[in-house]
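The aim of this short unit is practical: by the end, you should be able to scan a pair of folded records and say something sensible about each. We start with the first protein, listed as its amino acid sequence and then its structure tokens.
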Amino acid sequence: MTKPVPTSIHFQNNQLKDRVYLVTGASGGLGGVTALALAKLGASVILSGRNEKKLDRLYDTIESENYPQAAIIPFDLALTDGQIYEQLAQSIYNEFKRLDGIVHAACHLGVIGPLASQEHSEWLKTQQVNVNACLLINKACAPLLLQSDAASITAISDSSARQNKAYWGAYGVSKSALEAFSATLADEFENSPINCNVFIPGPCVLPIRKKTHPGEEVGGLSTTDTLADAILQVIHSDQSGQCYSL
């Protein structure tokens, strides 16, 4: 069951000063929107993704706005070696000595089509990037998050893929799994400073939407400004174990 995105938090300038957030998929649409929204409120943002040119452009945008200096950590979530994720967490500690939140915005769309047409390698890659990598990052970064007075882990689902309809393939399965994973994590972190929630953007102006819904009119889609406010509300929700839908 989903809940509407809360609107109770009214953010002030520099409200997130000295806070540190890791955003995976920062080179993508929602990841970039999230990173900028956090930086605008004074947070130091760790930009992670595969496309270094896009990460560099986002970094330059943050710099040009005089937001707190960001950090770039190029990273391929298709990697499965747990030690590499431990090195990622160590790099965060070396640079910032803390971590207050993770936003799992990275995703691999894979093939939208019948399950019978899913290549084995593509299926495995989709589950690795969209689900398994979240486990590996959370596990590696948990010691840092537990030192925060109010930390968050935010997973991104998909309003279309999560319905378990035909032809959404490995991507649809991965989003359902991600929601279950987040709920389990929230239960396990119940007596800790870490809140774990899911954000479901709904129909919005993002590159991935153009791939899954080609030819769709954009007039009725949520804008990036709406997305930015909504994701901030979810990241800083005082509840845990929720699926918030825009």
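Turning to the second protein, read its sequence before its tokens, just as you did above.
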Amino acid sequence: MVVDNILNVVFPRFCLGCGYIGSYICPACEKKLKHRKDQERCFYCKKKSYLGLTHPKCKRRRGVDGYVFLYLYTGLFKKIIHSVKYGGAYKILNEMSLFETESPLRTLLKWNSLLRLRCQAVPLHIEKQKERGFNQVEHILRPISLLLNAETLNILTKIKKTKSQASLQTRGARQKNIKGSFALTASHVPENILLVDDVVTTGFTAKECVRVLRKGGAKNVFVFSLARG
């Protein structure tokens, strides 16, 4: 605590939105972030869906069973995620009011009441985690697991060092880049899992993680991300 206070004096935090001193994201700018305000949507077709569940016609073998997110991946939110990943400012996530919107909160709690979920973060490759010093998704996972009073898992690992998905221009390149990147580190896989990520754009990373978890024995795998592009 003392060290943090000293660092805040020597290296003050500036709001990424307006430059206000004292925090990475001030209350006024956080209110400007684009929350998703409408009903939950199917992971695959993006059409409205009850509780974010995958439509029967959209179901995939070893696919995503349901999906929920909080923000739209635009403008200031892109700047926040970039600062978290590449600037080491992961404390931004601790400052944000992750559960301001009620609908995603209710959906997560409903899923958990029905299936008693375990929470798993999308992992980073060990070399990339060493470079950054942290996995930003774990800072999103913690409040989610506390909210749900759910066990956190560490049964998934990234075995292939890939290019950044954001650096690839086509869907085909992103799909090829991430294929075969993840593996299980445990022989026992819980039946019901909530996979947590920071951002979902094409969804290929989430799909690949879910495929591995389902292949390993999970019966239901839901996805939560802070934002969707």
